[in-house]
Amino acid sequence: MEQLSIEAERILIGSGAHCEIRLPVDQARVEHVLVELGAAGVFARALSFEPPPTINNVPFTQAPVPPGSILGVGGCQIYVEIAEGQAVTPDKVKKSESSPITLLAATLIIGVGGYMLFTDDPNDVTAKPPPKQTPELWDAPVSACPYGDRAQASAFARERMQIADAKRERRPFHVQDGVQAVPLYESAAACFRAGGDPGSGGLADESAKFLRRDIMDDFRTRRVRLEHALTIEDYVSAQKEVRVLLQFTEGKSGDYVTWLSNLDRKLRLKADAKKS
User: Fold this and answer.
1) Which three-class secondary structure state does DSSP give residue 98?
2) How would you class 97 by CB atoms within 10 Å of its CB: exposed for 0-12, middle for 13-18, buried for 19 or more?
3) Which of 32, 84, 177, 203 has the most CB atoms at less than 10 Å from its CB?
4) From what superkingdom does this record's organism come (predicted)?
């Protein structure tokens, strides 16, 4: 268990570095749940449904969080309660004279196999990646079209192709778009063939294969750069590579992804400590 007291009337829960409560990337999306304090009490709003967050094991979109209830995100359980505190820092004296600062106190229980991310030593960035380093970026190549009718298959193929082309163009600015484009091209290829257009199917298939190879080469290069940056203690470069690798593995789980998430947090804490 880990108990946190947060001086705020809103708490963002997710795997993003900017979240007040940060969970492992295999448990939560970048921004998963927003918890807010209002006149009627504590409310939670789901920002992602992969996996769906729950209150007392019941999925929700937006709902109150009654005292004693359990907010679940992935394998993590979070108890949220309201506390009252007085500000003591000089820059907050005037605010504290008019009203006490409201604290949202959150107690977290990370499920078995989870990682506590709140007690990391920021100076400990020497841990090596797990022996089985990398998760698979994709499942097996898509080989079947979900439509048997030729007209439907052709229309679906054209739609998939357009989306894949757009994502491939955005890849230099958002790595995950490139990763997502691969199965889209594969699905387009299968449906072009099912719709009686083998020429377009071959074009989509080649696009998928080329993008797979290109992304995997980039993925391997980024991993080598990260290990080199850690070896020479260039933590600024290491932090950049970690964040790109987290984009590659967004939505994936496993020891390597968790190691990356923990390393990102340690590097961020180290950078913050150096600034102060």
Assistant:
1) helix
2) exposed
3) 32
4) Bacteria
